[in-house]
Design the sequence.
C-alpha cells in the first residue's frame, strides 16, 4: 500500500503532466491535426502542382 507521501507526490506529478498536455493542446494551431510539427498541407501542394502544370502547357 502506498503511503500518503508517495500518493501526494504521484498526484502532483500527474496533475503537472495533465497541465502540460493541456497547454500543448491549447497552443496547437491545427486542432484537427494531432501532429502539427509534421503537418503537410496536401491540398496546397497539389494546387501548386496543378498551377505549375497549367503554366507549362
Sequence:
Amino acid at each position: 500500500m502506498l503511503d500518503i507521501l508517495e500518493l501526494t507526490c504521484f498526484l502532483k506529478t500527474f496533475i503537472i503532466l495533465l497541465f502540460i498536455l493541456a497547454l500543448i493542446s491549447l497552443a496547437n494551431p491545427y486542432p484537427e491535426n494531432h501532429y502539427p510539427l509534421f503537418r503537410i498541407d496536401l491540398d496546397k501542394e497539389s494546387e501548386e502542382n496543378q498551377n505549375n502544370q497549367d503554366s507549362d502547357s
Remarks:
- The mean pLDDT is 73.
- The chain is about 70% helix and 0% strand.
- The longest helix spans residues 4-27.
